[in-house]
């Protein structure tokens, strides 16, 4: 969608609620590594020309101010990256530090300027949470490979260059060797036994892991080992089970925290009711 200016030239595209919501879907609760849209944190999206206001509420009023700050900043930056958006205003509701966070994020202050008494830098908190998310995403990716029949030693030796998007021209040439369950969409093909056999696996968990591994700087080259220890080192095949167990524990911890947050959010909704619009049904 775009506007037409008086001279007949196409103006900047007009942002829609659907487009804004798609950008917000990229923003995660850093503690849970889940989208704030999926978690139903977003209460309202208002669009006035090239200016967008997003209101959101966290499961509890006492969620970490550092976590709330990260979500507010990420939401602002994602919405402002949308063509046609000049400025995004972020409003965090019903949080014990809502005033400081809303003022700081919308006035482009730093976390330290908004919370001068805070102990530590929010960047360090974000880095630690990103590493935990990487470990959990690796666990999910490795589980998909184990389910497909890969041996631990093979998984430890995989590199990004070994992955091919299933359905590509190169993979089609070897289609008779591909072991597939019939679903050819969103899958990756991995060669084993020196290329004699190609096995396909679901792409989603591996793509999610790749995104976070690259984001955290653990994985930079396509020829480097794909999976790592929590410290970022290549996995010794003899330590595979221990590394995978640590990933499972991290996933259980994150899932448990997510369950607690879901329960708190539901309890809060029952207590206060919904006073805001539903962005999922908003008119675009």
TrEMBL record:
Skewed-composition ranges (Basic and acidic residues):
263-273
Please name the source species.
Halopiger aswanensis
Tell me what this protein is called: Metal-sulfur cluster biosynthetic enzyme
Q: Which Gene3D superfamilies match?
A: Fe-S cluster assembly (FSCA)
Identify the stretch(es) annotated as Disordered.
1-25, 217-238, 259-284
Question: Which InterPro entries does this UniProt record tie to the protein?
Answer: FSCA_dom_sf (IPR034904), MIP18-like (IPR002744)
Q: Name one Pfam family in it.
A: FeS_assembly_P
The record's listing under SUPFAM superfamilies reads:
Fe-S cluster assembly (FSCA) domain-like
- Identify the domain of life: Archaea
Cite the MIP18 family-like domain residue spans from the record.
17-88
């Amino acid at each position: 969608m775009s506007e037409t200016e008086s001279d007949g030239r196409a103006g900047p595209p007009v942002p829609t609620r659907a487009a804004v919501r798609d950008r917000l879907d990229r923003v995660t609760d850093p503690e849970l590594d889940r989208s704030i849209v999926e978690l139903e944190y977003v209460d309202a999206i208002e669009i006035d020309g090239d200016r967008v206001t997003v209101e959101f509420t966290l499961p509890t009023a006492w969620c970490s101010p550092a976590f709330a700050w990260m979500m507010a900043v990420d939401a602002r930056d994602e919405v402002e990256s949308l063509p046609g958006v000049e400025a995004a205003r972020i409003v965090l509701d019903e949080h014990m530090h809502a005033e400081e966070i809303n003022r700081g994020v919308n006035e482009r202050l730093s976390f330290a300027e908004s919370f001068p008494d805070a102990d530590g830098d929010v960047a360090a908190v974000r880095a630690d949470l990103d590493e935990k998310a990487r470990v959990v995403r690796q666990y999910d990716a490795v589980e998909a490979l184990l389910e497909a029949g890969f041996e631990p030693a093979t998984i430890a030796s995989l590199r990004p260059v070994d992955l091919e998007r299933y359905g590509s021209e190169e993979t089609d040439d070897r289609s008779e060797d591909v072991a597939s369950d019939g679903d050819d969409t969103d899958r990756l093909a991995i060669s084993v036994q020196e290329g004699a056999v190609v096995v396909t696996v679901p792409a989603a968990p591996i793509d999610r892991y790749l995104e976070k591994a690259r984001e955290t700087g653990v994985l930079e080259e396509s020829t480097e080992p794909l999976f790592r220890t929590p410290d970022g080192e290549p996995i010794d095949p003899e330590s595979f089970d221990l590394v995978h167990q640590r990933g499972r524990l991290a996933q259980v911890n994150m899932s448990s925290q997510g369950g607690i947050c879901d329960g708190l959010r539901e309890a809060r909704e029952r207590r206060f009711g919904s006073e805001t619009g539903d962005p999922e049904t908003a008119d675009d």
